[in-house]
Design brief:
Layout lengths: L16 H4 L12 E3 L4 E2 L2 H8 L3 H16 L5 H4 L7 H22 L5 E5 L5 H5 L7 E6 L2 H12 L6 E6 L12 E7 L7 H13 L1 E13 L4 E4 L4 E4 L1 H10 L2 E8 L9 E9 L6
Parallel strand pairs: 1-8, 3-4, 3-6, 4-5, 6-7
Antiparallel strand pairs: 1-2, 7-11, 8-9, 10-11
């Protein structure tokens, strides 16, 4: 009933009237929000205290998300909630963004280029984008039958890109210093709690090569946040996401809205992020 893609997938693409109302988003953590049952929260902190206030609650949060996606067909249409037709335009936008933020490095590199596709679903982004520009991609996905489909699809591809398949959630990803030129995170970061989101982004930052970039492509709530209680995900506002990026020590160098999606959907924005320390080196 509203658009909350997760791990490059969505069970619904339309935003609620309440989520669409209002003007610019206020300060993130202090902003109120709502859930899919219509419950309103005074702040994100209040929501997280209810959803993930203990290790047990947090484990239940993640398992509920896995349980939801375990029942979804392993196809592009399945992971995009029946809106598989938007994939070509989405990939076109993503390619343009990648070339803008990393095109110079792609052109001049004489060595192997390595990317990570985080929350990869059935491998849509690796197959349609990353495998055309990188010599190696780590395909990271926590839902077993999605990862199996990604391996089947990418193994039969004519691409020379080497793909490694990792069955794990983003909160379980380990630091690999200096490995990645690009870490691509699309429609999945909403499944992470704020605390785990910040820690995951720190892992990504420490895993970059010296000129590497983290790309986050995600829905934006108009203000505050919208909690999807069905699949354990949160659609955050632009300012909410930027606060999390900042907490993780990352700076937004470029951001861009995807403008060719059907009406009535949440805004989708791509962010290019680099470590803040790069500006003081």
């Amino acid at each position: 009933f509203f658009f909350t893609p997760s791990r490059d997938r969505s069970h619904s693409w339309q935003q609620t009237p309440a989520a669409a109302a209002g003007g610019p988003a206020p300060a993130a953590m202090q902003s109120g929000g709502l859930d899919t049952d219509g419950t309103r929260y005074k702040s994100a902190d209040d929501m997280w205290r209810e959803q993930a206030s203990s290790p047990f609650d947090t484990a239940c949060w993640y398992q509920k998300g896995i349980d939801y996606w375990d029942k979804v067909e392993a196809s592009v249409d399945g992971v995009l909630g029946g809106f598989g037709t938007i994939s070509p335009n989405d990939l076109k936008h993503s390619k343009s963004f990648l070339l803008d933020v990393f095109g110079e490095q792609l052109e001049k590199s004489s060595s192997s280029l390595v990317a990570a596709d985080c929350g990869a679903g059935v491998g849509r982004i690796t197959k349609g984008l990353l495998s055309h520009h990188f010599t190696e991609v780590d395909v990271i996905e926590p839902v077993r039958h999605f990862l199996s489909k990604a391996e089947e699809s990418l193994s039969s591809s004519s691409s020379t890109c080497k793909c490694n398949f990792l069955l794990k959630g983003l909160q379980e990803v380990e630091e690999r210093p200096g490995r990645y030129d690009v870490v691509w995170i699309q429609w999945c970061i909403g499944h992470l709690t704020d605390e785990d989101c910040v820690e995951f982004l720190k892992v990504c930052s420490r895993s970059l090569k010296p000129e590497g970039v983290v790309v986050v492509k995600e829905n934006n709530a108009r203000r505050g946040f919208v909690l999807d209680k069905q699949d354990s995900s949160v659609t955050r506002s632009d300012s909410y996401l930027v606060q999390l990026f900042t907490k993780a020590g990352l700076k937004v160098t470029t951001s861009r809205l995807e403008t060719d999606l059907p009406e009535g959907l949440f805004a989708v924005r791509a962010y290019a992020l680099v470590p803040q320390t790069r500006f003081f080196a």
